[in-house]
Write a structure and sequence with these properties.
Helix content is 37%, strand content 16%. By secondary structure, it is α/β, with parallel strands linked by helices.
Length: 321
């Protein structure tokens, strides 16, 4: 899907994370001005500004920013937009980490080391009065445009899917899908919860979307079929890691065969090497190995696996617009 692709009021912005077509944000035109869904990492802020300007707006025109969750490829530049006057909307569990990102920053630095700033840029606090925590089912209206928050844990306990008319902004819980390829769920530590994820898929299905806007990447127009692919691969990939980890293989040693497994899965769908590289850029294999290994270890030890507010079992809240 090309950057600048649009569906009604929604325009896809390509933030060029290492290559085209891997990390996006969405500009939504409303009667009260443009709003933004996702920010990308701070390292790509210049790309974001250029994309916004290409749509005829300045960053100061964006007064409202919705992030699906606080991972750096989705919300890393939120503090920069807040300094330009925007209000940031986020899950209640994520809100304190935007106000004080020290734990988020420390965790990312342990993973990425010296590559941290090159990949993700800087993180600075957002004043609490610029942050709005959204409850499940809450609707924010801008004229005749209504954005509804649907709490969808599984990928992260602080994940929200946003509903706009007959479309869903699915962040990462709706999977990664490059072009017309399969939908691949990303499994980074520490919050993977397969039961909650399956429940979140059911909640997204219950919204009966015609359009799906995955941050990685594009505007998808095949509705519920998207979730069929997501659900199939959720179990296929998680079961592979479970079975391999059960042999006593270390997480580090699992990464190379997992990369082969994912390559073969994607190649088996007819994807060229260039597209397979795009999937790896958007969803590094080592992250899924460590996230799923942690999940299965907790299950084996009988440790509780919980999500913010507990599992969601209901349909999309009645106050859906």
């Amino acid at each position: 899907m090309n950057h600048g692709d649009s569906q009604g009021p929604v325009t896809l912005l390509d933030l060029h994370f290492q290559m085209e077509g891997t990390v996006g944000a969405f500009l939504v035109r409303t009667a009260e001005g443009p709003i933004l869904v996702e920010t990308g990492p701070e390292s790509l802020f210049d790309h974001l500004e250029a994309e916004v300007q290409a749509q005829g707006f300045a960053l100061e025109d964006i007064r409202h920013v919705f992030v699906t969750h606080i991972h750096l490829d989705h919300a890393g530049a939120a503090w920069r937009l807040a300094r330009h006057g925007a209000r940031i909307y986020v899950h209640p569990v994520g809100a304190p980490h935007l106000a004080d990102p020290s734990k988020l920053l420390g965790s990312a630095q342990r993973i990425y080391g010296e590559a941290m700033e090159r990949l993700w840029g800087r993180l600075e606090p957002i004043p609490s009065d610029r942050i709005t925590a959204l409850e499940d089912g809450q609707v924010v209206a801008f004229g005749d445009t209504a954005i509804q928050a649907i709490h969808t844990p599984g990928h992260a306990i602080h994940h929200i899917t946003y509903r706009l008319d007959d479309g869903l902004f699915t962040g990462d819980v709706g999977g990664i899908r490059i072009g017309h390829g399969p939908v691949i769920p990303p499994f980074p530590p520490p919050d993977i919860d397969l039961e909650a994820w399956s429940d979140s898929i059911a909640r997204m299905r219950a919204a009966h979307p015609t359009f799906i806007y995955p941050t990685h990447f594009g505007i998808k127009r095949d509705g519920l079929a998207h979730f069929d692919s997501l659900e199939e691969n959720l179990h296929r990939i998680a079961d592979w890691v479970r079975d391999q980890a059960a042999t006593g293989t270390s997480e580090e040693a699992l990464v190379p065969p997992f990369q082969v497994f994912m390559h073969d899965l994607l190649a088996g769908q007819g994807l060229p090497e260039s597209a397979i590289d795009e999937y790896e850029t958007a969803d590094p294999a080592f992250m899924s190995v460590y996230g799923l290994a942690r999940y299965w270890k907790k299950r084996a030890l009988g440790m509780p696996i919980t999500s913010a507010g507990g599992p969601r079992t209901g349909p999309v809240p009645k106050e859906a617009p």
